[in-house]
Amino acid sequence: MSDNDNETLKRLIVFAIFMENGQGIMSKAPDYVMEKFNLATVGDSPEKHLDNANQMKLQEYFLQWGI
Fold first, then answer.
1. Which of 43, 53, 58, 62 satisfies CB 3.0 to 4.6 Å to 67 for a cystine?
2. What is the mean pLDDT of the chain?
């Protein structure tokens, strides 16, 4: 995978983590979804918006898949 692909994947996983809590997407208002999408896709280091536990989850995901 290229560095660009890795960055895109990281952003996708950050967004997925934002959406997984509670009842998943069904409990997320459209404004919340848009806010989190923007946090995940705009700027650098989208993982800085995750709490410590979810930053660990992101790191574990990348380790598990050898990325």
1. 62
2. 95
Check pLDDT > 90 for residue 60. yes
Q: pLDDT band at 34, cuts 50/70/90?
A: very high
Domain that holds residue 44: 3-64
Distances (CA, A) of 66 to 10, 29, 32: 13, 34, 31
Angle (CA) 3 10 46, round 5°: 110
The residue type found at 33 is: V
What is the tally of structural domains in the chain?
1
Crossing angle, helix 52-64 and helix 3-20, to 10 degrees? Answer: 130
Task: Please check whether residue 25 is in contact with residue 33, taking contact to mean a CB–CB distance below 8 angstroms.
Answer: yes
Token pair for residue 41? 């896709």
